[in-house]
Amino acid sequence: MMAVVAMLSSCATTKGTPSNPTPTESQPGAFVGPPAPNAAFGPELQEKQEVLVMVGPGMASALSGAGVIRALHDQGVRIAAVAGVEFGAMITASYATAASPNTMDWSLLQFQRDWVRPKEGLTRFISNSPRSSRELHAGLKKIFRNQPLDALKIPLWVVESLEGRLSSSTSGSVSSSVCRVLTTVQWLEPCEAAGGAPFDQVSGLLRDQWERVGLRMPVIWVIPARISAVEGDRAATRIEAEIAAFARTVELSRADQDLVVTPPPVISDYFAYGRRSEIIYSGRQEAKRQIGPWLSRLGWTRVKRSP
């Protein structure tokens, strides 16, 4: 009988003693709460699959950049910011104003060849004056509805190239900034009322500017195709020089984790905007071919989306 009483007494003592004793007056300031979470529970945090897309110059050939953007969406790679030179700025601005490939396509469909092509025929010989930029600016204002650069869903850099130097802007209106970079070519008048803050000179690499604001991520560089210029075609010669200068900038700025996409040429005229579907398709197919191996190299998960 005494053994049974002793056993019950022992059980009662054990039951009343918690494994984590509560603080007493001898333990002032002790914290009582749930145990710390075990790091082994729950899914591991995945690295964000975010990139910055930079589309170079090339007038109509730069439309291949729109295909590259679509290919990134197909693979589930999120575009966190965009930048563009010359017509590349038109493409990235069309995407940044809504961050949607469909809206981007709609904006590009509204762009008219006559806004930017050089004068032709007798007009070219009779008048040596540059083509007016009034139609271009009015059209861009209609497309972008005077949206400000610093209030878009994703950051947008509008970049201009002047004699090998680069400058960029992230303030002012989208339409004025895009108009400004499109009229750096010799056959167009400077864009009227292209207000906003002056473009910031980039003394170093473009990547340095992006990293200063926290965009430390892979960059997708789109170098539009160069077309063999017809001898004496000053416009084509100028565009080819701009593409070559951009390609040199990419070589200086690219990092190991970056991807450079150069779609094959599908047009023989830098102003063949009527063949935009073919040019965009060319960029999409070339990017699709390269993105799979690139994602594997980075160790990123491939997330396909429906087309």
Description:
This protein is of the alpha/beta class and 307 residues long. Helix content is 39%, strand content 11%. It has helices at 2-15, 64-74, 87-96, 101-109, 121-126, 134-144, 174-182, 206-212, 234-253, 276-298; strands spanning 50-55, 78-85, 156-162, 165-169, 200-201, 219-222, 259-261. A 7-stranded mixed β-sheet has the order 5-4-3-2-1-6-7. A hairpin with a 2-residue loop joins strand 3 and strand 4 (165-169). Helix 3 (87-96) packs antiparallel against helix 7. It is globular, with a radius of gyration of 29 Å. The chain starts with a helix and ends in a 9-residue tail after the last helix. Residues 13-17 and 41-46 have low confidence and may be disordered.
Short description:
The protein has 307 residues and is α/β, with parallel strands linked by helices. The chain has ten helices and seven strands. The protein has helices spanning 2-15, 64-74, 87-96, 101-109, 121-126, 134-144, 174-182, 206-212, 234-253, 276-298; strands at residues 50-55, 78-85, 156-162, 165-169, 200-201, 219-222, 259-261.
Distance between the terminal alpha carbons, to the nearest Å?
82 Å
Report the radius of gyration as a whole number of Å.
29 Å
| Overall average pLDDT | 80
**Helix percent band:** 25-40%
> Which runs of at least 5 residues are low in confidence (pLDDT < 50)?
13-17, 41-46
The backbone outline, from C-alpha atoms, is globular
Number of distinct beta strands: 7
Oligomeric assembly: single chain
- Largest sheet, if any? 7 strands, mixed
Q: What amount of the residues lies in strands?
A: 5-15%
Backbone structural class: alpha/beta
